[in-house]
Amino acid sequence: MLICLLRLIQPAVSPAAENISLKQYHALSIPVANPVDLTRLPRKKMFQVKDEQFILQFFFNERDIFGFILKRDPKLSLAVRWCFFRSCEESPFDYTVRIAAPYRPPFVKGFFVVKFPPGIQYNFQGLLFSSPH
Fold this sequence. Notes:
Low-confidence stretches: 1-16
Number of domains: 1
Oligomer: single chain
Mean pLDDT: 83
Number of helices: 1
């Protein structure tokens, strides 16, 4: 009887976010310029950034970045800078995260996640993927 009562009180489970598969959207990614203007990105789409030293594909859920490195020179590191301005001009409010260190994974077809910086009370307007030397 107690088990039946507990089952009735148990809250319904509902997913908090829609599941996506990054591999599923490989051919459907939208090419975007680097730096990326976050204010103009369509929702629920995959994007691709091509540079001379790397190619990556990412999904932006308006908070976090999930992506794959499709091409990368393993000698170089790879970073993403959350930019306060759309043009990604330098600002003291920018936040930089290294997503790949030299000679360390993720390499080609490597998955990466960049979480929105904790404790920040404003939104960023741009992203800049770079390979700092």
